[in-house]
Amino acid sequence: MGECGRKIKGDPIPTERIGKGTSVADLVDKYFNAYNSARISEICRLMERKVLKENVTVGVSLTGALTPAGLGASSIVPLIENGFIDYIVSTGANLYHDIHFAQGTKLYKSSPFLDDVELKKKSLIRIYDIIADFDALVESDKYLYKIFRDKAFHKLLSTSELHYIIGKHVAEEEERNNTKGTTILAAAYKAGIPVYCPSPGDSTIGLNMAAMEIAADLQLGIDVSADVNETSAIVYDTHKMQKDGENAVLILGGGSPKNFLLQTVPQINEILEIPIKGHDYFMQITDARPDTGGLSGATPSEAVSWGKLNPDHLPDSIVAYTDITIALPIITAYVLEKCAPRKHKRLFDRRKELVAQLKEEYKKHHPEV
Prior knowledge:
This protein is α/β, with parallel strands linked by helices. The protein has a domain at 21-89 and 154-170 and 179-195 and 223-365: Deoxyhypusine synthase (Deoxyhypusine Synthase, 3-Layer(aba) Sandwich), CATH 3.40.910.10. 49% of the residues lie in helices and 12% in strands. It is built from 16 helices and eleven strands. The protein has helices spanning 3-8, 24-31, 35-51, 71-81, 92-102, 116-121, 134-147, 159-177, 184-191, 204-215, 224-241, 255-262, 264-271, 300-305, 324-338, 351-365, and strands at 56-62, 87-90, 108-109, 124-127, 130-133, 156-157, 195-196, 221-222, 246-252, 281-286, 317-321. It has a six-stranded parallel beta sheet, sandwiched between helices. Helix 3 (35-51) packs parallel to helix 15 and helix 5 (92-102) packs across helix 7. The radius of gyration is 22 Å and the shape is globular. It starts with a helix and ends with a helix.
């Protein structure tokens, strides 16, 4: 067999049968051999072999209705608690619905084929095949309205600060309701993980913040520049200031959180004009097509053209075109079985230090300023 044949042909497709008691790790390693199961397997093994090491900083983005489906408590919180996530970029909706679980509010399995007019009459809301009482939203709104009277919110905040303070309250809510360990916000607060939201006004958390200005004459402001600078400083510190430091992104879905994770490198390279390589490891679970031109479906190789990814690490870039609710529990179960817990980097505690460091580096590269 020639050189070309050796590169093209991988291992033979196995014929071993699945037996009783097969673990998730064995299922992934032995039986996920083709199509998107193979991509999930590649993500799992990449995380085990390269990503979940002490020198790698892992950013995770969350889009789609993940927390209503229970993926916060089942899959994200265990990753946080084991030190496998260092910072998060999320839609506001995922963080809002996260709060329901701290309050002990129930969401229910149902059907996507219901009469939505009848649901409206019964004060029920539907997220595809999930049903919740409208009162669940009302209770979470009342809760946010109450905690937003805390003076800690009454200043200009980055979204990492906003979610840290909310997380503190949510952790206390978990203790009161015996729902400990059910929310991303409380877990991130305890682990010192900064949680960012690129569009804070596009969620019920943002709506309740805006309502405080109307109803209580209180101004709660978001510093979007701080979010950009903090995330850029995290990436720069890993690449330039740490020995053998590498950056990894696990993108669950697409949308604005995906770009917010990746734009850190163009911000440093293109805007601040400080030379830096792109992200080293790229893993995405999505159902978005690349041929419509949207960011959600944009491929890793396209990101290389923007300078977002390190071209030397393109082989370490994997996209699985499947449902996150299928892939994420498998990935979480796999790494919990195969990887040792990592020490929390507590990047929230280092935000000001890292931004100050980035400012100093900018001055070194631009002494004329």
